[in-house]
Amino acid sequence: MPGRISSELAHLARLARDGGLDLSQVSLRVKADLLLSTPQPAPDDIAAFEAMASASIPVIDEATAVILATKLAGWRHLPASVLAALQARGGPVLAALLRHGAPVTQAEMETLAEHGAPDTAAALAERPDLTSATMLLLVERDERAVDLALIANQKVVLPRAAVDRLIERARADAAYGAALLARRDLGPAEIAPLFLQAGPDRRAAIIDSLAAIEAINDGDRRRRTLEPDRLAGWLDMAAADPPSAFGAVADHLGFGAGLAEAMEADRSRDLVALALVAAGARVEDATRFLIRLGDEAAHSVDRIFALVALMRLVRPGVAERVVMQVAGAQPQQTTRRGRHQPAMDPSGTPVRPGASQPESHAAITGIMRTLGLRRDRA
Prior knowledge:
The chain is mainly alpha-helical. The protein has 21 helices and no strands.
């Protein structure tokens, strides 16, 4: 007899001797363990167990019923009547059956996904055999425990509609974002709205993916320009009234209050930096803006240099796409114009601007020194 079963039987025997367990329940569990340990149980033994279980399951305590459900859920010889008796208990017993692989039809799955109790739906969300329809019904419940169980289920491929809903909820709940980023079946473009929560590798993949999309859409031909007067106004507001400054940048990009609120909430200031690049600000000017905010990020030399590195890495069109995704805005479709632009000297023509010169490291350091930040400050 396997060691696990022997130790469990010894435990049950002690409880029975001490009067702490109904002997009928002990007998049912012992019979189940003996059958489970037999590769090919005799039909008579299965029939005897079926009769005992069908009579006992409706009246045994819930803890014993959960134990039986856990053990019997995936047993290929489980009689239909015993499965039905366990299912009829509902609650934790039904959840244990679902979690451990009891057979369920597609229609039953969809019914449980739509109308089942929260613990039942959460258990169902862990199964590897979920259909797209069942997953969509689970997401429609809008219950955090069910959503997180489904996101953690790496054995299923989430439907795109479900991913969109879950990412939207991730904007207000970091646990959603962390769980979604842990999935490897979601492509970089799909998780772009989670850019602020992503680690370096995932950020790099998102940037590369959006850069490819930008190249296909010829986005570099619609680069924004930032007038000196507008920039000066932003710099003044950044020092005196940061929320208004965020609102001005968001309005300039056409994304409004949603982006402004997201920029204010992001204490890392990564989103502000990307929004400024998208708006057409040079890295030097964007750095001035970020330092004038006077917040925790502005007083961290390491954070400022990290923001500068991010701004240098991302082209304006790609930055705009990241900002749109994080803010929940829909990217505007750009119509390609059939206008010929001849290849000429890189200095540019009236319709083909020359390549911008990267801002020097010394210039950035000079701005920080002027505003009282030193690279070697503790």
